[in-house]
Amino acid sequence: MNDRDAKLDRVEQALWQASPPAATPPSQPVEVWRANVMRAVRLAAPEQEAALLDLSWLRLQRAAMAAVIVAAVSWLATQVWAPVRDSDLLKAAWVQSMAETWNLE
Amino acid sequence: MQPDAPMPSDAELIARVRAGHVNDYEPLITRHREQVFAIVARHVPGAQVAELAHEVFVRAFLSLRTYRAEKPFAHWLSRIAVRACCDFWRQQARHPETPASTLDADHQDWLETAAQGLAREKFAEEIAQREAAEVLDWALAQVGGAERMVLTMLHRDGHSVSDIAGLLGWTQTRVKVTAFRARHKLRGLLARQLKTTR
């Protein structure tokens, strides 16, 4: 480590040992400060309610969308699967497979 | 409320506020005011503390719907407070309300003394401590924004990287990279300042 780095290390170390800024006394009594916060909160309350409503509406929309997707996919699956299930080809294949399994001629 | 009734917990109060009983937010403010003031006072100038603490509670109220009870409310509030301080310094960096302070002869003297490592007895003095704090304030003002917050939390407040990541909502890697860059910047500033004292 060169001399410059050593000096900087010492300065840095001394700087971080410096006490944090002293707490300044509050400019207004706590009660006044809290009342001001509550006033701001009450003013913001409709915004909060609107946000909650938005959130509920969003959740409802998502649930409805999920239900529609599930219904669409199951309908589509039925449409694709039903002809295959009912076809003679499948029945024949099933019979063939059973016959092979049980060694039936 | 009955005089003998136990104080409702944070979770109960939050549930009531969420149900529309805004006045139940006041006990939460009373309960956590000191903690928020302590965090804010460590990071922003004294004159701004009350205003920023006010903002923290309003922000917390507006985000109350996102609060999940997995972690204590106090912890969640600390995160909002730290982020509010971070935003404060970001805003200051963008639109400085007061010009950056400059170092006078006493500060230069402090720097030179600290660099020589001669400071031990002198630092015990209140004046030297104040000068050190002012030099630190000057240096951090040059570093600015989120980098300033990361440096102070890491080196002055003694938080771990994972703590800082949790408080700022960052990844640990981002905290490490930001701290490295900020420290590099700080050392560059101090080196330049030391050169001018010669």
Mean pLDDT of chain B: 83
Helix content of chain B: over 70%
Structural class call of chain B reads: mainly alpha
Task: Tell me the span between the first and last alpha carbons of chain A.
Answer: 91 Å
Q: Would you tell me the structural class of the helices and strands of chain A?
A: mainly alpha
**SSE order of chain A in H/E notation?**
HHH
Q: Pick out the low-confidence regions of chain B.
A: none
Categorize the overall geometry of chain B. elongated
For the record, the count of structural domains of chain A works out to 1
Globular, elongated, flat, extended or rod-shaped: what is the shape of chain A?
Answer: elongated
Largest interface chains and counts = A-B, 37 and 45 residues
What can be said about the biggest beta sheet of chain A? none
* The top level CATH class name of the largest domain in chain B: Mainly Alpha
Q: Compute the number of helices of chain A.
A: 3
The biggest beta sheet of chain B is recorded as: none
Number of strands of chain A: 0
* Structural domains of chain B: how many: 2
Could you explain how this protein is built, in words?
The complex is a heterodimer of chains A (105) and B (198). Chain A contains three helices and no strands. The model of chain A has no long low-confidence stretch (mean pLDDT 80). Chain A has one domain. The model of chain B has no long low-confidence stretch (mean pLDDT 83). In chain B, helix 2 crosses helix 4 and helix 8 packs across helix 10. Chain B is built from ten helices and no strands. Chain B folds into two domains: 98 residues, RNA polymerase sigma factor, region 2, helix turn helix motif (Rna Polymerase Sigma Factor, Chain: A), CATH 1.10.1740; 98 residues, Arc Repressor Mutant, subunit A (Orthogonal Bundle), CATH 1.10.10. By secondary structure, chain B is mostly helical. Chains A and B meet through helix 1 and helix 2 of A and helix 2, helix 3, helix 5, helix 7 and helix 10 of B.
